[in-house]
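Q: Convert this sequence to structure tokens.
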Amino acid sequence: MSWLEAIPLYFLVMLVLVLPGLLLTFALNLRGLLRAAMAVPLTVAGFAASAVIFGLVGIPWNPLTVAIAFVVVGAGLWAVLIPVRRRHPRPRLGQIRWGALREQMTSQSIALWCAFIVGAGLIAHRLKLILETPDAISQTYDANFHYNAVQYIHDTGNASSLTLGGLGVTPEATFYPAAWHNAAAMVATVTEISPWIIANAMTFVFCALVWTLGCLYLATRLFGYRPVITVSTGLVAACFPAFPFLLSFYGNLFPNTMSIAFLPVLLGMLCEALGLAHESRNEARTPLWLGTLLVIGATGLAHPSSVLLALLIVLIMLLTVWWRAVAGHRPWWLIGLGAVGLVLGAFVLQQIWFSARASQDASTWQTHITSSGALGEALGPVFPGSSHLPWGIVIVTLLGASVVLRTRARWIVGAWAMLVWMYVLVASSLDTTFRYDWTGVWYNDSNRLLALIPLAAVPLAAAGCAAIVTWVARKLLTLIDRITPARTAAATAGEGPSATPAQRVRHSRVAGAAGGLIAVIVGFLALQGEAMTEVVNYGRSEYGMNRSMPLLSKDEASLIERLPEHVAEDEVVFGNPLTGTSLAYAITDTEVLIPHNGLIADGEASTIVHHLEDLPTNPEVCPALEKHNVRFVLGFGTRQVNPYAYFNAAGSDELGPENGFILIDQEGPDAKLYEIVGCGQ
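A:
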């Protein structure tokens, strides 16, 4: 598939993810940048919440019922917020003077548009380089589960996070945060696009659209709407390799990527609601708090670890609010009550944090570097073990931190310092217990912690870029006045123009646009370097089928695509999931016995796994095959996607006519399809 062919499909995916949430933004009385940033998170919140609620009450989860739910919830929110609308009226469509639109195109709004185009465009370009083709398949361990989960929801309508974990295979339903899978499955149901193409399109939406808009909103809450800040934010949002690029392919952690992309707008709303924003706006707080709760729900049902991180940052924000109350000489009892609340909040968060840690058996990632090396990786986050340090990012981030420390937005420096410390801890600490206490929420995985740092580093880097641009502009304006002394003197004496040359340049939109363009180009060249090239090349190795890939080769994909010619709709195929055989379900809707490593239905399925080749001599094999209607075996050789994962495939190593298996199709040397004939089926 070419990128030109994919544009309509990707655009359709974006529409399904934007329009439902956009309805809720009108109901919540949101507007402007916040409305744009909230559309997709609210869509995901609606999909995920409806999946859980409908699953509990027995309502089918499909496009019709979900659309009705959005309309009902939107009407309810609109009704609840009628008093807010009366206190904060907005012009109706018929009252808008379209002739005045040109007047609304201020330098601030133009800068926002330019910032979004720069940030989203750069991210989309890098993602295109990583994927190489729009229908590329993720060659990672978790791809089996994510693709098959989307197909499972599409086929069954069982979308609840409370039951998705077993994919309908295990006897007991288990919890798995399914917000990403709900969104992908709804898109698949509406459009009938393949799961892996939807996953790629959603990566573009979350990384380029949601992340960029969220970063812009957070930056404007921290520093205001100065054009130099917004354009700098758009640029640097696309310049941190660790996010959104690393998590666009690592794992592949599709849900984690989505949850992190939601965090900037979430922190921005909390900043506004808690009174920490740069500019005090006469806005109702109720819509902000309602929107915050909805985004927290979407984030938690995507990846709960991101909510825990948000709560930790909120604790820093609340500490800032409390300290301002102390400095403002508020009543002693209010200050004391706030202190008690902070202590209780920290205690409750600690209990939640510890209970949310992954098991120590699952938290197997080890340290890989010294503390000083880990600090360098945290200041210029690329990926753990990267051989390049993006010095431009390091410089503007540190400069921005020093600038922001002198402002009322210094709490974001504290959040950044905490994230840096947590990464140094997970990447280098030899105190395994302390390390697990703090980073077990992320499986002690350095990659996941490193991807969190840009959340706080982007605003700081934007502030650093803005400081450099402002300093350079000031020096240039001074130079202009120096090289035109006669005109400057005349203007001062009132004998000439009322403004100096420097003042005319400062107020010229043409000069501002030209200067901004030059600054963006210089910034791009300074911030995009070998580190970004390295992460792109790393990402390319995790996608596609143009070479020998760890999960699915071109030969294996070709054989899977022919499965419907041999396998009936009600028949089941067995194969080692770590070799890519499980993707038969997502690609051709052919039912597989094991949709993901570890999902073994029962004892009979275990018998098939461990003793299949003993079919002529083991009397338990044929009844097990009959129970699960397994009629075929898909063999993709011994290459596995994850060398550290384990699947005992010894029971199907030797298959042939002598023990009841006939080779009926083959592609290349390793991709083989056997029919089971030894049971007289």
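The CA atoms of residues 121 and 208 lie 7 Å apart.
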